[in-house]
Amino acid sequence: MTTAAATQPRLNSVPPTAQDIAALERVWRDPPGFLGWLAAINHKAIGKRFIVTAFGFFVAGGLLAAAMRLQLARPDNHLIGPDLYNQLFTMHGTTMMFLFAVPVMQAMSVYLVPLMIGSRSVAFPRMNAFAYWIFLFGGVMLYVAFALNIGPDAGWFAYVPLSGPDYSPGKRVDFWAQLITFTELSGLLEAVILVTTVFKLRAPGMTLNRIPLFVWGMLVTAFMVMFALPAVMLASTALITDRLVGTHFYNPAEGGDAILWQHLFWFFGHPEVYLIFIPGLGFMSSIIPTFARRPIFGYSAMVLSLIATAFLAFGLWVHHMFATNLPELGKSFFTAASMMIAIPSAVQIFCWLATLWTGKLSFKTPLLFVLAFFFVLVLGGMTGLMLAAVPIDLQVHDTYFVVAHLHYVLIGGAVFPLFGAFYYWFPKITGRMLSERLGRWNFWLFLIGFNVTFFPMHLLGLQGMPRRVYTYGAEMGWGGLNALASLGALTIAVSMLLFILNVWRSLRHGEQAGADPWGAGTLEWSIASPPPACNFAAIPVVAGRDPLWEPDALPAHVSGLSVDSREVLMTTVVDAHPETRESFPEPTIWPMLGALATTVLFIGSIFTPWAVVWASLPVGIALTLWFWPRRRENAAHLALERTP
Amino acid sequence: MRRPLAPPVAAVLSFASAFTMAQDRPNVVPGVHDALVAAGPQSAHIGTLWNLVLAICTIVFCAVLLGLVVAIWRSGRGDATTRADVSMVARHERGPYLGVIWGVAVSVVLLLVMTVASVVTDRALARLSLVDALHIEVTAHQWWWELQYGGSPDSARFTTANELHVPVGRPVVLTLKADDVIHSFWVPSLAGKKDLIPGRTTTLHLRADQAGRYRGQCAEFCGFQHAFMAFEVIADPPEQYDAWVASQRRPAAEPADATTRRGQEVFLRSSCVLCHAIEGTTAAARKAPDLTHVGARTTLAAGTLPNGTSEMQRWIADPQRLKPGVNMPASTLSGADLGALAAYLVSLK
Lengths: 644, 349
Prior knowledge:
- The structure holds 2 protein chains of 2 kinds.
- Chain A is an all-alpha fold.
- Chain A contains 21 helices and 3 strands.
- In chain A, a hairpin with a 6-residue loop joins β2 (567-571) and β3 (578-583).
- The model of chain A is unreliable at 1-6 (pLDDT under 50).
- By secondary structure, chain B is of the alpha+beta class.
- Chains A and B meet through α5, α9, α11, α12 and β1 of A and α2, β1 and α3 of B.
């Protein structure tokens, strides 16, 4: 300890010197080599992996959908039987909801939030790595099971008793239930990380009413995750104990209840939709101001709308259950609540229109994807209002009308803005621009293909075609519209190929982006592309909502943070006054090994309940070593504490 | 370099040939199956509400798009070098402010209109007059429908499957139960859907005002053959309905010729009797559809096949081929026995 006190830690100066920048790069970068890759904890490395993994699952889920569209392209098709088809749509729904839509939003924010709020890291960087590995291992488990023909086949909603031990024997549904455990664990950890990051690691001066709207959206989402996910973890754990150790939570013959599952599942499942939608709104609010060359109109109204949406989202779950036996008054309540959630969305849509109306527009690809939102999401919102009306819902519930609705909402509300976000932040992440020409082809083919695929499904639903059927008779007359929808799916596939081609080409030959290719106003554009390991060599001091657009852009920086160790600045929750310096942990392989041990426990428990007992030993060892204090780090931290 | 290409090409070709292979399932002639074609008050109420909501939503959707088009048309143009003006954060922007306020106000009013209309329609659905209602118990099984008509004395009760006959103009109260997993009862042209839930009993009220055939289908995913769990509702004028009821109350007809007599023998000595019942014989199992009057129905296997001797024979010979996963095993009967059995069953009018 005494030797450590003798070495004076070096602190950064303003503006940072070349030595400062080099030292910070050394301190914050992940270790080299394959082991170093496994030990990485830098939020940008984890964020990139997370995004690529989630996008990989998106492609896999899309291929499953393509297989389904191939089967449905003609009536009485023999290509895929019910056994495989049921696995296909279960895997598609599960992949898109649990392995793509929610994780990719969290992944984007793991990468972007620290850059947008002027921080050097996310909070709990090792936990962040652990959450990524858990997510990856869970998804791989599901796909290995699918490849071995033990993929889940009871739907992504897994209604009991169909998913229970009597009607889904074997291990298929167990893999589904355990996947929920994996992804929800990962999702909850990420939520804790995001809330802490946003509340405690903002640059000085970034008061709550100056946070970028995307960050607000992710903050709201993270809170929703913490309230919604426990419901489904409870539900799926009860399901797995029903299946594996003979409990009877859902068995009506033994006093259990089949409807209990639906309440628990949808109490999570409806907020889930908004977990996907609200980050999409955040992308909208980031991209529109940049390409309209003005700050967003109605910032406070936007923030309040996000919060209102989050609250109302927890009061709608029963509208998935209108066809069960419900009291009249209950149905009316949930109709009113479902209609009401349109109000905050309307506020945001009108504020964006006002921003565009008074802006100076620059029609780059990100803006195109965002403008598609107004067509696709608004149409999906309208069909959502139709579904909120109980009588109409009783007709079109569980038909292709709902399939159309949910894809309009989720693809319009989240995937179009997400692709806008890919085009928008790709230069920041990689340092190179995506091709505008390919981007436009990607956009138009996606928009056209999407509508050709999903618009006919509204009509199919009204004509009485139920969801989740592996085929249909020629006598029903649904063949033409289904063939059209399959053609549209092919178009979407082509547009996705163009996107992948665009990324692949731009990574090699893309135009150099520079720090701020769009002339944007938020902090992430003030640093180099791709950002240095420490993000900000000197933490900026913020004086407005769009710091780079302020008349005297970024006049001030923070000095006094160590350049020899991973030190971050903590600020107060509301006003972002500097509060304390905190030393962050260094890269280690233990989060990855801990995730591996946890995976063994989760998968083992599918086969024997004793796995919970014996596999907790390696988990315990990994967690202990993860937190084991190291003398050198302690000495460095102590030395910093003594230096004011 | 050509050899490695061959297997993928072969795979693509076999895939394409599989794709062009359609099932040789003979088609049934379905009844009306369309949520927008109403044949009774329940779906007519829903149709009215649908028209109102569709009109409002179409107008709002067009208005938002119009707003977007005008915004794009009237706004200026800029690029990454255009200086962004942040002074408007501090300034009150009157035009956009009023636009947002009015847009939201109109939205709220329209949402209220739709909410009230929805609740009023909901009440109307719940208040269908049940005077002189007919009570029928529907039990859903994987993947067929059991229908029990009440009556007194007990001998007036009867059970049938997959074909629901109702009298025109008379309200029907359906008591809905599920035997295994959750199913959903849906006849789009007569009423909205209602789930059948194990351990619970639900009811659905409907009335057919026009004679005709209406198709229904299970609307809740229920396993392998969710796709082929259909049924027909046949709305008959009252006297025709009464005649049908009278015929259903009779036990099965005795076989009239040598073939059907042999068919009955085959039925009674084979594994059929472990699951099926035929009133008037010793077969009384209730695990599968009642076959007392199976010959009088229009479809087989819950709307999978049209009814007829050859289809019956094909069905019994290998149900898994026509409806994979169904709970009926393939038959081991000889060709002659199979033919006689099919002839017997189809003769049960």
